[in-house]
Please model this.
Amino acid sequence: MLNTPYKRHLEYPQRTMFQMIERIAQQYPDEPAYELYGRKTTYAEFIRRIERAARAFLAMGIRRDDHVTICMPNVPQALDCFYALNRIGAAANMIHPQSAVREITFYLNISGSRAILTLDLFAEPVAQAVAAADHPVTVLFARMQDELPPHLAALYFLKAGRKHLRLPDTGHTLLWKQFLKKGTGRSLPDPLYEENHTAAILYSGGTSGIPKGICLTDLNFNACAMQAREAIQEEFRTGLSMLACMPVFHGFGLGINIHAILMHGPCCVLMPTFNAKSYADILIKRKPSFIAGVPTIFDALMNIPALAHADLSFLKGVFCGGDSLSVELKLKIDRFLKEHGADVQIREGYGLTECVTASCLTPKDTFRPGSIGLPFPDTVYAIVQPGTDDIMPDGAEGEIILRGPTVMKGYLDNEEETSHALRRLPDGNIWLYTGDLGHIDEDGYLYFHQRIKRMIITNGYNVYPGQLENIIDGLPEVAYSCVIGVKDPRRMQRVRAYVVLREPNRPSAELEKKIIDALRDNIASYALPKELIFRESLPKTLVGKVAYRLLEEEAAEEEP
Model:
């Protein structure tokens, strides 16, 4: 029986994302909405900036249901643009600014974007991508120095900004500051809320194959923000802040680090790119109330000299998602937080972009080894037999499915994939099939095992890479690992483990034996790696996960 420490049902207002921010601005006009390296923008000024950009988009000819690509890091212009498009009913197509040229062209084409906003730092690849697009695209170039405090703006210009003064001419190019002037004097229509209207398009984070555009609504984002606030069991109010380092093109970054914060009045402390030293500096100087990230971020923080003696007692919440957090790493982080004066534990959540981001969270001060928590309000989880719609009993392993108000409309122009992911079951509800293996215990706690497609079959036995990775990562000498299946003529697949060590450790026969012994003590002999390969680093996805598919592709190209 599910027994949560928070409300199981919430009332969701019929408002756009912009209207939810506007409501906060009316209540707290002089409170900071976001800041970048100490330069703060109040909620009242934020609304003025949004509406100025919205008028400029109207002047450009952008209308309701049009798509505009935002190819930006976490900087003010990205937020202004996102909510400006929402203000006029257009959809923001969110992509990584370091995407390859062909990827950007793909995103422009599949979304039919009429314009793209990017930083001058990314001018060349974006210009090349626009030139290859199958339709005209206007390019809006923003400059980082325009949003920095004066002393930092001067330093940035000398170091990087002056290198990008000459921008490529795409035939349709405007500086963001010039673009904003075009809307002067235009009137804005009243915001219009429609429950099934696409407000944003995010992309599946797969490392191979064709990315799928995930169509999300105002209700999806607003519901996620309200659910997160309730499940976090901490006040979200003015005077508090979130260090927003998770990228704005990702559901975790946009849905939790940005929208859930702005919708309730705290301040977003923007961090354009993750750098461990810069993160530590901002953490110490800005003292954010909340931090959220993927496991690799927290693992890196514990090894930064600047934090060795830092007082972290200001932290009110530490949240982890985007990838599996091993029990061993959680315990290390909890110990680190306690030693540095923080009266909090790291709390793991689970979700996927198809439901914006998080949809369940470990309750405050409660930890069940291996569990990723309880579902958010109005979110229901179930387990089905893989490949079927048959609901499994408590404790049984199967595919995780869920339903609730954050579940996407569907995939952009892809009915086949949509019908596979969203299915109406006999209870009359539409359920999202996650492609993840897990189980639910008798108290309703969810346990994530791994992606179904990651399962390795060797000699007819099922091997779960996540189980092996948790054991390997728990060793003090190991930074992180990745386990894959490699084609084998005799076994079908053999197990291979890639391991990245912490400094100053070096690969050795003794260390290899220690890893294998640790695995042998915890898993069956058939699941032991037949190969153990030490690497200085492993490829990562755009959001910091180990790109296991790239390792699988690399292995597939090896000589048989």
Q: What stands out?
A: The two ends are 51 Å apart (CA to CA). The chain has a mean pLDDT of 91.
